[in-house]
Amino acid sequence: MKAAYIEETGPPEVIQVGEIPTPEPGEGQVLVKVGTAALNPIDTYIRNGANYWELPKPFVTGSDLAGTIEKVGPGANRYQVGQRVWGSNQGLVGRQGTFAEYAVVDEHWLYATPDNVSDDAAAACALTGVTAHLGLGADNAALKSGETIFVHGGSGGVGSMVVQMAKAMGATVLATAGSEEKAKLCRELGADHVFNYKTQNVAEEVLKVCPDGVNVIWETIREPDFDFLVSIAAERCRMVLMAGRDARPEFPVGPFYVKGCSLHGFVMFKVSPAEMDVCGQEISRWLSEGKLKPQIGKVFPLSEAAAAHKLQEDNTLRQAGTLAGKILIKP
């Protein structure tokens, strides 16, 4: 099969595209013919060598996929050949990735794709959607209908999912964006109030809308400004972090605990299959009902996987501002 893979970690240029053996599904696994894969920042970190685990060689990059069951391994009984599925959590903890014509996946990491949902849409909502769902759920933000949530970076991959899910859950959504185009997108996704962090004093604007502060804060920025975040927090505000693995920001301990705030961090690849299954089922339902609209920024053929990684890094690490939405790969 054709695949985008690496033999050693490094910059995007280490990615090779060529023929490698098509994998065979083992116990509890299925072989998926990949219709669409999606790129996430974590895929670029792993390619660059930021790993907690040993990588197989050659290592196929990519976490997300949507496609069709091609073959069912022994003991796998959840899906049938020909059934459409989507999933994430590949390319992690030693598993092979999804930038290939085929991928072997443990069936408990897959979810049925509704008939009215495309592979592109399902792949674009995979890791970002699961991340948003986990962060908003009972173990983290525990967002409730009628509450207010501030999404710092509402047009990004995860941020756009948080905006839509929070709205579907009955919350009032406040979001930031860096341009009028991205602010317009946030509004289209359901944000009730959008602030341009380049031209407005966001803290002042948030407190005009919510004088007592917001109930939940979702931070997508790699280097959080906690003085700012605490200033817009309501009593018992729950803050969710999802970025900044190497960040070491100053932290206003006193104002934070006086307000009774709580801070929540998590990584989706440490979550159990049962927990992720709850996310997958609801994401599929929301996609089918039109409550989730995936934001697709750029589509690359498999042969241009290195260029896709470079575009992601330019925006994640260098704040190029040239991407709004997910990068998809078409095998």
Task: Summarize it.
With 331 residues, the protein is α/β, with parallel strands linked by helices.
Give the secondary structure arrangement, pairings included:
Blueprint: E1 2-6, E2 16-19, E3 29-39, H1 41-48, E4 59-60, E5 64-72, E6 84-87, E7 102-106, E8 110-112, H2 119-124, H3 126-136, E9 148-152, H4 157-168, E10 172-177, H5 180-189, E11 193-196, H6 202-209, E12 214-219, H7 226-231, E13 233-241, H8 253-258, E14 262-265, H9 273-289, E15 296-301, H10 305-316, E16 326-330
Q: Can you give keywords for this protein?
A:
16 strands; 29% helix; alpha/beta; 331 residues; six-stranded parallel beta sheet; seven-stranded mixed beta sheet
- Give the number of DSSP strands: 16
Summarize the amount of helix as a percent range: 25-40%
Structural class: alpha/beta
Rg is 20 Å
Question: Total helix count?
Answer: 10
* Shape annotation: globular
Contiguous runs where pLDDT drops below 50 for at least 5 residues: none
Structure, explained:
This protein has 331 residues and is an alpha/beta fold. The protein is 29% helix and 27% strand. Strands 3, 5, 6, 7, 8, 15 and 16 form a seven-stranded mixed β-sheet that branches. A six-stranded parallel β-sheet has the order 11-10-9-12-13-14. Strand 10, helix 5 and strand 11 form a beta-alpha-beta unit. Helix 3 crosses helix 9. The longest helix is centred in the last third of the chain and has 17 residues. The radius of gyration is 20 Å and the shape is globular. The model has no long low-confidence stretch (mean pLDDT 95).
